[in-house]
Specification:
With 467 residues, this protein is α/β, with parallel strands linked by helices. Helix content is 37%, strand content 15%. The protein has 14 helices and 15 strands. The strands form three sheets. Strands 4-10-9-8-7-5-6 form a seven-stranded mixed sheet, sandwiched between helices. The protein has a four-stranded mixed sheet with strand order 1-2-3-13. A four-stranded antiparallel sheet has the order 11-12-15-14, covered by helices on one side.
């Protein structure tokens, strides 16, 4: 890495404290904690402002799929900015990269999801998709069909509507949310299933939760069910085998639209551009995406809808109807050019094939940490993995907040060259998809050492961890 790290760390730290408002930060600590200042990146690694290399176990935020420092991506951004930096997509206005990208995405989607609405990111993709469902039902005269079913521990975004369909308890805090037409099902987390219950019986139970809720509300009143294939930010929760297919079939049975939120799972994280069909055997009515769409190089999101749905709106009955939703930067030509180049790289380097080959190794290596006393569960798939820490492995006891266990592990890992995502008692991994086996080995070895040290520290502090 030939970076020039002549940064004034003290000056940047002071300016950060004085002027930056960070998302998802403990506001009572911002004036005392040292910010991590990330200055450069290359491949699966980033470098802080002092020039220290760190394996990025977070992938930016589930998104830097093709890795950092791609000259080809930088060139694509520059070339498009020179040709046309921006034009509004409102009305019947397109640009070459947005039109080409819409066609390219339609080639990857399952079934007849051939129509693409571009947004600015994952939150706006989900928000727009949900608004579209309500718009569609109003257009069809189904004015009571507005109820939305989602799940606890889901994460779908941070607009008012997308945050309201999210279900992470820690994110609800002092926030006002929509509750009148949104309903949360129990989280389908096999690790927390009742003692003695088989996986098959548990799947029956959580699939039944959806059917019972639809019948309780009345199918004529339920607009859609929105679900991440794996619940990502909620703790990489992997529903029981068959759950995705069976919930999709329930929605088909009762005329409820199925939205597959692939903001995280899309563009290779599970080994395919979209995981809905090849991994889970479903053909959703709507797919939302963002993050890996541009590998984080610039913001862009989208939702895709089926010919069947779009066709209802574009016949003669649709004359005079306007879906009054969009953003100044929807279908931004520079972002669309980045997405096209990103897809070129994913295809040319067979990054999805790399994930299918190396992803299981990544999961297996992290699973070896299960012999640590405070590790209760290691779950996930391919390059989405979560380690859940417990106070008692057998009882699956969640440690008290004062342990701050994941934060302690993060703070030990960082100076040793590894970034992880701490979330209470959870450690989440979602590295760039180009990570190598040797980098995986390095990351797991570092994590093991740091977890053992934190475990010893906690015991010295008087906290009980069952052996």
């Amino acid at each position: 890495m030939a970076g020039n790290f002549n940064y004034d760390i003290a000056d940047l730290t002071e300016k950060d404290r004085e002027h930056m408002i960070h998302p998802w930060v403990d506001l009572g600590t911002v004036q005392t904690r040292e910010p991590l200042i990330v200055a450069e990146g290359e491949g699966a690694c980033v470098y802080n402002a002092q020039g220290q290399r760190m394996i990025d176990g977070i992938g930016g935020m589930w998104c830097v799929n093709i890795g950092y420092g791609r000259e080809e991506m930088a060139q694509a951004l520059a070339d498009q900015a020179r040709k046309l930096c921006y034009f509004s997509p409102f009305g019947i206005i397109g640009t070459p990269p947005s039109i080409e990208l819409a066609e390219r995405l339609a080639a990857y989607t399952p079934g007849d999801l051939n129509h693409v609405f571009f947004t600015t990111g994952g939150s706006t993709a989900v928000d727009s998709a949900l608004r579209f469902v309500h718009f569609l039902n109003n257009f069809k005269g189904l004015t009571s069909k507005k109820q939305i079913i989602t799940r606890e521990y889901a994460y779908h975004g941070s607009t008012l509507l997308s945050a309201s369909v999210s279900g992470k308890p820690a994110d609800r805090g002092n926030m006002d949310l929509i509750t009148s037409f949104i309903h949360h099902l129990p989280v389908p987390n096999p690790y927390r299933r009742p003692a003695g219950m088989s996986m098959e019986a548990y799947c029956d139970q959580v699939v039944g939760d959806l059917e019972r809720k639809i019948l309780e509300l009345g199918p004529e009143n339920v607009a859609c069910f929105i679900a991440e294939p794996l619940l990502a930010s909620g703790g990489v929760i992997v529903p029981p085998p068959g759950y995705q297919r069976r919930t999709w079939e329930i929605c088909r049975k009762y005329g409820v639209l199925y939205i597959s939120d692939e903001v995280v799972t899309g563009f290779g994280r599970l080994g395919y551009i979209f995981a809905s069909e090849p991994v889970f055997g479903i053909e959703p009515d709507i797919i939302t995406c963002a993050k890996g769409l541009t590998s984080g190089y610039v913001p862009l999101g989208a939702f895709m809808i089926s010919d069947r749905i779009y066709g209802e709106l574009t016949k003669s009955a649709g004359k005079g109807q306007v879906f009054a939703n969009g953003y100044t930067y929807s279908a931004h030509p520079v972002a669309c050019a980045a997405a096209l180049t990103n897809l070129d790289i994913l295809e040319r380097e067979d990054i999805c094939g790399h994930v299918r080959q190396v992803g299981p190794y990544f999961h297996e290596q992290l699973t070896t940490l299960g012999d640590i006393d405070m590790v209760g569960d290691v779950r996930g798939s391919h390059f989405m993995v979560c380690i859940e820490c417990t106070a008692d492995k057998e009882a699956k006891t969640v440690p008290p907040a004062e342990w701050d266990v994941a934060r302690r592990i993060f703070e030990k890992c960082m100076p040793r060259g590894l970034l992880i995502r701490p979330m209470g008692h959870l450690i989440v991994f979602s590295p760039p998809l180009v990570i190598s086996r040797s980098q995986i080995d390095e990351a797991v070895a570092t994590l093991r050492q740091c977890m053992l040290e934190v475990q010893d520290d906690l015991r010295r502090d008087g906290f009980k961890i069952a052996a």
